[in-house]
Amino acid sequence: MEKVSSSKKNKDLKSLDDWYLHELPVLLHSREPDPYMEQKELSKLVKWKLTRGQWRPRLQQFADQLSEEVVKEASQNAFRLLSSSNMKEAIEAMASLKGIGPATSSAVLAAFRPDLLSFMSDEALIHAPSISKEYTLHMYLKLMDVIGRKRKQLYKDDPDTAWTAQKVEQAVWSFAHAHVDEQPNEESKSKTKAPKSAQGVKRKQRGVRASVAADLLHQEHAKSISSTTAVQSSSSSAPRRRAVKSATQPASESRLVTRDNKRRKVVVEIDD
Length: 272
Fold this sequence. Notes:
The chain is mainly α. The chain is 72% helix and 0% strand.
């Protein structure tokens, strides 16, 4: 996470991430038996969310303007419902606050129960199979079903690691951003220095664990897209062969180009 965080434009991400993952859960559980979140904590959580993803000043303003009373009441109600295994109602209770939607509500509840819930990040929505990038309660419940199944599978394959829903989402987020960082555009390639060998080894070691969960989600996503693409390709293969082949091009070369075009189409659709 440290390597990925350092590549973000906002330098606050590392400290905010440490606060969200380590300090906030302790604060919430210290208020048992009826835990709640304070207004300043919700405001800081929204800052973490926006720093981690796309910055939207208006959402930060909404959180900053909420009163201490309404935040305490909504969060207490949400945590009570979650403790009773009412995930849907818990999200709805937190989302009753102005400017707080399902994504921010998921971050609040995931800080309280990271073993069961994760943040509804863009990266998780993109890599999870059969999930659309829609910030709705319905889509979040589907995402939690996918992450829950992967968490159980990871624990079965690696029982010595305490895989939580939050750790699976972190792995997907890290994998997605590391994947972008490793493929710079042509302009940045000329300005980027080659990493030292020791740094490269450490990066590879960190990537092995981080990519495990992300690969599982990404592979299912790739399979679903590949199958759809294969059907589309088979129905339009004849016209493509005629378009590729020219008077000066041998038939064997034409077939190779056709296959390469199909392969490239699959890769592009998966990466998008």
